[in-house]
């Protein structure tokens, strides 16, 4: 169901039929919460033909609390939001209403700022900070001119740039939902005496398995017994399809777990970030960090690991020293930041208590702060002086995968930009590296298409009680993430060690067949790590090496070898983790673990 450009951001449902619309819409929205959950709302026309719009910040439970489920209504539209423009708030949430038009929107309008100055909109006073209100006002003006909503939608389609799936109610029209779709998913569900619109099939599965797919630029009018779809003014015939998955499978887009789905979303996330931060072979939308004499990076868990990778990249390619700390330690430790310093905080959720506390502590002293965050409008995003969004879309599995990769990529771009600003990177190197960033999504796609070896390796090691990881420098930081991923979802004891450190004690734990997973990407220390691997092989370890370096001369060092594509070292740390995520996933799967909701863990850690 997913299309290119769609990051499962925001969910839409609409209903017209004989049932009560409110419960149908709310239950539908609940199945779409994996597409976004920072605010929700619905609009319906009641039997007195009055339009009601009810919205609330937070997830759908909050919206449920303020609804009258007994109100009679047979037509309505609903939305669950994942903020892209404007913080999550009641006023920014959908549906939006202007004049005769009420609508829900999935997608991003790229030219919404320009459109605000459009002849038709110049007298309109915007109340939200969303791109959606601009679409709503535009369609309303066009409707006032044309007196025909389908014609107004045709006109709007000529002016709007970006992606949009819209579900629209027209004042006083109790019989129809109007739709338009471009580069954002939308289907029409076909029932008996009832029809639906939805951004994804799970929303309607309770009622029907029959649906039609819409193409870009399709414009439609849906009533309870009929639907008409037009493209370029001509009516188009649509085949009614039957959906084959059950509700749960369809929410995961056919993947067995959200974690696997999110691992496979990584090429799209990478592309989204590159589109946001690189344009015409130049880095854009990234701050200048050269003025800072000291930079600290703080995060928890995987976010901390992303910070460790950044340390290596900044030091190596931007000649900038970075102090990385675990947030729960940092907040209670003396820090040496002053007015020439910057604190970078990293957090997927933007709500992690220790990371937020570290941010507040530093901000209180008037020191600059920069947040790298996924959830738009989260506490950390709001409170930091500057925020960069990682654009990974909602992450549902507790163990982070795509958000971690997005954090590392964004930090890598920041290190690269700082190196350029400091004139440490030549213009030919710059072009070369930018080309590699531009093809990174394809490289990850390739990896994901040919990664059967991860499952095979997992099968060989999943019964072990201890699994060790080894690496040096940046490779050590990479293995820390691999080890965390493995232990948190498979419950197998695992440790990651700087490879030279193992012999200072921990090597005592290596015995026959103990799995030792090593990462070797840094050529300068490859031979050192290889000698340390040999030390474990001498104790009969089961050695698995992930390497971007030719290992032909070191066949005695490994039982399993995964060859990683060679890319520029600024980008390289992103790749091994993809394999380690998959190994962890399959080890957990073979052990029958609850992969998306591992025991004792929560997605957002809002307590100390
Ligand atoms: C590991 C994991 C956690 C988070 C950590 C920080 O897979 O998900 O270690 O990385 O709890 O969370 P955020 O990034 O939301 O601050």
Can you describe this structure?
The chain has 608 residues and is α/β, with parallel strands linked by helices. It has three domains: 11-248, Aminohydrolase, N-terminal nucleophile (Ntn) domain (Glutamine Phosphoribosylpyrophosphate, subunit 1, domain 1); 252-448, Rossmann fold, CATH 3.40.50.10490; 450-597, Rossmann fold (3-Layer(aba) Sandwich). Helix content is 35%, strand content 23%. The chain contains 18 helices and 27 strands. Strands 3-2-4-1-10-9-11-15 form an eight-stranded antiparallel beta sheet. A seven-stranded antiparallel beta sheet has the order 5-6-7-8-12-13-14. Strands 19-18-20-21-22 form a five-stranded parallel beta sheet, sandwiched between helices. Helix 11 links the parallel strand 20 (341-347) and strand 21 (368-373). The site of fructose -6-phosphate has 15 residues, from helix 9 and helix 16.
| Contiguous uncertain segments of 5+ residues | 1-6
CATH class wording of the largest domain:
Alpha Beta
Task: Give the neighbour order of strands across the main sheet.
Answer: 3-2-4-1-10-9-11-15
Question: Which molecules other than protein and nucleic acid are bound?
Answer: fructose -6-phosphate
